[in-house]
């Protein structure tokens, strides 16, 4: 295409000169419209004109002014929101032409350059390219638009072909921009250079880079494939001296790339918003970091100062989100790798102070940076010439001064992150890192410490300048200070395992696991016990973490017996956990370690590591950890329901019963036998015969064999059962068995004789167990009754007879005669050398008739106590008879074993609290498993336990209700609340409530009726209401009105004495502060809720209230006072709308307004009296307080004469009245004017009495603090008590609250 043709395409001669002048006068800020005919011709002819205009433009006399004006017309047309595809492509082509024109030498002289038009052309991509094209970032775009305070632009829907056209035009525009930068210097135009830097930074995320990008000084623009590659080259060109001072250019480029590295979107205004770290965003970030590394490598000394600044800004502007922090730390690590050792040490020095900033995100990010730096090769001290900076280069400084120092941070998040990172350090390959961690917890090593280092939190730390830091290196050998410090570090870590914050506990567990796995701390039970205990942590996530830790430790140290014990202690109890997910995790661990490793036994095959571990664990359960084996019963019960206990498993298990680890096999067999369908009974019977005939079978194994025998008793025929019974009886009569085996044998005997007919079972037990009782009695009688019977006493045989007697007597109480009881009693009589004439010195608890000399050994007497206790369990009349005997042993006995057993027996026989506690636990478990339902009076029995006289039981009941039972049934409290009112007042006249069946004994035993139980009832009401949701509070108020108040108003319930009590209590409940909505709401929400409450109250409550007031006035009922008190409490928030509420009863509205006004005046007067104080009194020394205070008690106190504060004394009763009671008095004196209140009526009508005034005495360094209602706000602002001595405190005047004698007289008159 020749020049003339190209110019004809543009039709410059047809452009009106007036229009051209108007465009230039507008400074290209807005598009000036052309005539429609000319605009249509230009739109048709614009395509293709830009391709050849550059070659012929300089040789023709063309109106440059018109040409630029026409180009601007196309450029500005593409910026319009409604521009179509052709307009946008033409706009991009026109911008490319303008940039090419601008690059021609002499363009400035010919007035082609215009700064506004240049900026518009270079930034045209952001207007022509759809912002959401090919990207799934609608959420981010929405956030960004909100942050900038603008509405998001309407999205244009373009197909793939149109997008390719626009992309080609964008590529051409960016290439033109790069060619412009190669020839057109921006040295004198810093604003344009800044704009270009921003534009290229935006283009970095235009599209992903295919393959890697290379950065070099000279590149062929036409060979650059993607727009981001061109943008990086453009940024590189901007850093050349041609476009201004290089330092300023580097600053601009690094500043724009900062947000790319931070993965943030920076708008024209407002704070930058984080982007979702998608693969495209991460790729752009990675390329930006590589580009910065290239610039630093090329420019070196020029770029290093700006690299320091960039790193500091990355740290300062990092957000708290963990994923973004992790990517940011990796960026810091990559950038620091380009630094010299001296610059690196300076950055570490700055990072040290940054890690102590008050901002939590800063301290968290410093830990992330440390972890990335530790993964890099350690720098040598010789590489840094400054001796003060050399000690910052080793990894030891990062671990000990930056990472481990955060273990005592104020923030639990930082603490937890530091401990978790410490555990990760041990997994790093660097030996120097591992050695540094060892130095923290071992007695040898070298540490670099910072003088004056602060490790106790960071909230008070201030940002310091870069002054010289005095460092000292302290070499530790086997000295006491280092050993002490190591012990303190370990003790602190163990305390963090019990921290109040969940995340800290989890991180401390991870750190403890790492130290144990890598042998940093000794593998002793004191350290491992913490892991096991955390498996029972209150937090579910901590329990799961602890289970994972003990499992990981067992996998790392499978042959360590202490680790095996810790694993058993942690995992086995977790199968009974209330949280199902914890149960599943524990069962999964047991399945992997135990169930899956039981293979068939073969003498020729060696056990692998997993099988050896399984049998080692089972051996431990049979010996050291016997008490844990019972949890296997629950585990196998669950597995059997899931069909996990297969016949193959049982067969494999039985094959080990004759191997070297038979004890473990019998243990598992005793737990799984109940769920097995087919068993080889012959092998089990052979094992029983072997056990009876041999004395080599261990005690634990014998018990498990007997247990298995009892479980299969129902599957044996009569002849076999009779033979086993005879063998067991013969075996028991030898009295050669260990005590544990005796118990197991008697229990097996019971299983063998059990039948569906209870009488037959008892007859069997009377026969066989009675025979054992007779044999034991025949052996004991000669020894105890004969004067010389105890001379040649076989102590072991005597103990076994006593034990057998006690165990057998539990199954046949009818065969225990008086003679048997007296024989056992005689074992306990106290040894004494007193003569018969010294009876007056005996303790009062011992009747003289029960005293006789005794010479039995301590062991015999200790077992005698247990046997006598078992006899008392079967015969209640013996309990009171032998109480003096047990009391005598506690007073005079010297044997520890005897006294201990007496305490156990007395707890079992006489402690009702333990019975209530165990019953509560049992019922809770049954309710959790849904074996027992919430029917009848069960819920109300739980409520009675809430006010149990034993605080521990009441606390346990509260825990069971809130943390175990309420989770399964969140509506439980609200469903039973109204019925509680009727039930605890023993009121059964209501047609719906308190109608479940209960005996008269139950009714009397659990009744809380009457004024003396009012406090207990209201403790229950408050407990229930405190754990209501706001929706439940709102609904229960409406329901009380409909089912209680309306029944009295409609005469469905009589207003007799019991009815009046119910109505009075109902009004008092409605007046409780716990009935008000508790949620914290915004002002708008609160207004809406208030309006809804108001509407409900007017429509539903007010008519019933007016009817009740009229009814109560007619019968002159004292309940009227409670009604008025309730109205005063309710109308506090609507005091200006009383007439609107009670428009149907003007008298009630007037009375209520008067009562509210009177109450307000009295409250104001009380506040003024409370603020009456003295301000001119000198402060007396602390040492004289007690003397002067005691003197103050003995003299009359007149106002304004105190030299020291008066001693604390209880307030008069009137001061302890609740707010409700005060309202009751005011409303009573107002509504029942002229009536006389009976004496004691106020006391009888008190809803509840607070536990006491909120007074707390804290004594430390002769300082006491009194927390009262008047200084609650002060205490809230300063939660730390000042315990400085008088010399340390600043002198000042003291103020003392002094009550007016008039107010004291007023309170006294009320009482």
Automatic annotation (TrEMBL):
Residues 148-159 have a biased composition (Basic and acidic residues). Residues 129-159 are annotated as: Disordered. GO terms for cellular component: condensed chromosome, centromeric region; condensin complex; nucleus. The keyword Cell cycle applies. InterPro entries: ARM-like, ARM-type_fold, CND1/NCAPD3, Cnd1_C. GO terms for molecular function: histone binding. It comes from the Eukaryota. The keyword Cell cycle applies. Coiled coil: none annotated. Gene3D superfamilies: Leucine-rich Repeat Variant. Pfam families: Cnd1 (PF12717). It is found in: Nucleus. Keywords: Cell cycle, Cell division, DNA condensation, Mitosis, Nucleus. GO terms for biological process: cell division; meiotic chromosome condensation; mitotic chromosome condensation. Residues 913-1040 form the Condensin complex subunit 1 C-terminal domain. This is Condensin-2 complex subunit D3. It comes from Dissostichus eleginoides. The lineage of its organism: Eukaryota, Metazoa, Chordata, Craniata, Vertebrata.
